[in-house]
Design goal:
It contains 20 helices and 21 strands. By secondary structure, it is of the alpha+beta class. The strands form 4 sheets. Strands 12, 13, 14, 15, 16, 17, 18 and 21 form an 8-stranded mixed sheet that branches. Strands 3, 4, 5, 6, 7 and 8 form a 6-stranded mixed sheet that branches. Bound molecules: adenosine-5'-triphosphate.
Length: 590
């Protein structure tokens, strides 16, 4: 596909907030895509260069882009800055700047450019962007700028707008993964194909790969896709119930484990490679060297995928430390120093793949036995604590121990359940102490805007945020609460700085809201919030149907930290909110 044609689609996608229209545009686009560029088209529509677990970063700041724009156009810094002040969007600035640029590159550039390349196709643009991302080592900054100038001059001004936005990670078309999957299904004539596509996506987390397989091998090829080491599997999640009795009534004899309050890690190992992925499928391999080393040393397999929870521990006593400490291990710099200070312990709880075989379809209990066999006892990696029981009093006893020892609660698992990639269902059920009072559980909301605040708060320029939950069916975020409590002054200041980076002029296309915050932001950051209870409210859009009101949090308060381990789509879902509301009603009526 020609890049200018892709830009036409991007323009149309930008202009609409209606999902049906989006499907039409995307289906039309897929009809014109070829097996060799459909993956690149998908990545670019989502403002990326590859699946997010590859962690491809362009490494170009706004400042660097402005420098490139000046060189590419010959315009002065004063002029480019004035345009930026006027538009507040470097995409628009790039378009305007390149409109006023002459045809010939400024003289000083001639020695920088190897040759004038052809930037006609989506493939060519994608490749040069990848090349920019891959520049490293001495002189890489200059090389990046050189390539960028070449690119900006090689495409029409309108395309420069999108190039700039992609480069800065600011392409906001509101096209989420479920929307792409549905559009791909529609492009093959039937929405029902989405089930097959979704299954494949859950196993590899790479929309581009799913689309390429569909284009090259058809639905049969997609159905044959299987789990592969090096492609993170979308993680299975828990449902909630309020008591041991209810859980046993649902599962029968079950496996009961502690709910470790750290972060989830999926480890992929072959003889040659070892990678780790987080809950939101980011590559975290370089952050946890001690886990990697322990896997190499103690795990007996030639290839495998295991999952578990990592928790920081005290370097002297080995005692497990709280989440707030553990989360400090999620960092790119100062890794070794932190690994010394807060060494991680890894509690493995599932086995997905072993020595060339997919284990996800095997019953949980078999996977567990396999896991116990491959993990040799050692201090860094061990299997999670587990009992198997059908007696509520045993669960209650373990629950008491869990709470006393500072765990989050329990996770109770169906013995014969498969590993349900990418789904939250009753195969795994969590039981937490907070279920007995207040709101049954904290809720993870995605911030979609903020308010300036009144009184003392006004001096920080932020008094509270507008939070939304995720509707996976519609692939949109729906508001559920305004939160102003629970933040320290420093947290508020930090939050404002972060949110200002993703500030947008209008409501994001994927946000449904009746409330107008002072500042809209891209749905990007997730925070944990607790509240007294869930209520019904006409003010919020979460769970609203026809004339029925939506759901809202009463007396919401921020708890803990920013959930950097969650993507916006990992925020609590509308479906979970409806279940929580029912659970709350049941508890009240007991
Ligand atoms: P939370 O906000 O409570 O961590 P979540 O949305 O991340 O929840 P849930 O489905 O509620 O995910 O709970 C599953 C999470 O609990 C897993 O992602 C994992 O990180 C953690 N966990 C801790 N111990 C276990 C365990 N023994 N088995 C499965 N998951 C566990």
């Amino acid at each position: 596909m020609k890049f200018t044609r892709l830009i036409e689609f991007l323009e149309r996608l930008e202009a609409t907030t209606k999902r049906l229209e989006m499907f039409d545009i995307l289906s039309e686009q897929f009809a014109e895509a070829s097996p060799s560029d459909v993956d690149r088209i998908i990545y670019l529509v989502q403002g990326q260069l590859g699946p997010s677990f590859r962690g491809i970063e362009l490494g170009i700041s706004s400042k660097l882009l402005m420098r490139a724009l000046m060189s590419a156009s010959g315009l002065s810094q004063k002029k480019v800055s004035a345009l930026y002040t006027k538009h507040g969007d470097l995409g628009l600035v790039a378009e305007r700047v390149m409109e006023s640029a002459g045809d010939a590159p400024p003289a000083s550039l001639f020695d920088m450019l190897d040759e004038r390349r052809n930037f006609e196709s989506v493939t060519a643009i994608h490749e040069v962007l990848l090349e920019i991302a891959q520049c490293s080592g001495p002189g890489s900054q200059e090389r990046k700028i050189g390539l960028l100038i070449e690119l900006l001059r090689g495409v029409p001004p309108l395309a420069a707008k999108y190039v700039a936005r992609i480069i800065l990670g600011k392409l906001r078309l509101g096209v989420g993964d479920p929307t792409i999957l549905e559009a791909l299904a529609l492009s093959r004539g039937d929405r029902a194909h989405k089930t097959d596509l979704e299954r494949a996506y859950n196993l590899c987390s790479d929309l581009g790969l799913v689309a390429t397989t569909l284009f090259k091998k058809g639905l049969k090829g997609v159905r044959a896709m299987h789990i592969t080491v090096g492609y993170p599997v979308r993680m299975a999640l828990c449902e909630r119930l309020a008591s041991a009795d209810e859980i046993l009534a649902k599962l029968g004899k079950a496996a009961v484990e502690y709910k470790y309050d750290g972060f989830r890690v999926q480890i992929h190992m072959t003889r040659k490679s070892l990678e780790m992925y987080s809950r939101n499928l980011e590559r975290t391999t370089d952050m946890f060297p001690e886990i990697g080393a322990a896997v190499r040393k103690h795990v007996k397999a030639s290839s495998l995928i295991i999952e578990g929870e990592a928790m920081a521990s005290d370097e002297n006593t080995g005692q497990l430390l709280p989440f707030q400490t553990t989360i400090q291990r999620k960092r790119k710099h100062g890794v070794d120093e932190m690994a010394q200070r807060y060494p991680l312990r890894f509690f493995a709880f599932d086995l997905l793949y072993l020595d060339g075989e997919d284990w996800t379809e095997r019953p949980f209990i078999e996977r567990r036995r396999g896991l116990e066999k491959v993990i040799g006892g050692n201090t860094v990696i061990q299997t999670s604590d587990l009992i198997i029981t059908d007696r509520p009093e045993e669960i209650t006893r373990m629950f008491g121990n869990a709470v006393d020892e500072g765990f989050e609660g329990l996770v109770i698992k169906r013995l014969d359940s498969v590993y349900a990639a990418g789904s939250r269902n009753f195969n795994w059920i969590k039981l937490k102490p907070s279920y007995r009072h207040e709101l049954s559980d904290s809720v993870d909301v995605c911030i979609v805007g903020y308010f300036y605040g009144k009184g003392a708060r006004a001096r920080f320029g932020i008094g509270g945020v507008l939070g939304a939950v995720y509707d996976s069916k519609e692939d949109v975020f729906k508001t559920i609460t305004k939160i102003g409590s629970g933040f320290t002054e420093d947290e508020l200041k930090g939050l404002k700085a972060l949110l200002d980076e993703s500030r947008i002029r209008e409501r994001h296309a994927r946000v449904q809201s009746e409330i107008e915050p002072d500042v809209w932001v891209e749905p990007r950051y997730v925070i944990a919030v607790t509240a007294d209870e869930l209520t019904r409210s006409p003010l919020h859009t979460a769970g609203r149907r026809g004339n029925e009101p939506g759901y809202a949090l009463r007396f919401p308060r921020f708890v803990g930290a920013l959930r950097t381990d969650k993507k916006p789509e990992d925020a609590t879902s509308v479906k979970e909110i409806v279940r929580l509301y029912k659970m709350q009603k049941n508890i009240k009526s007991q």
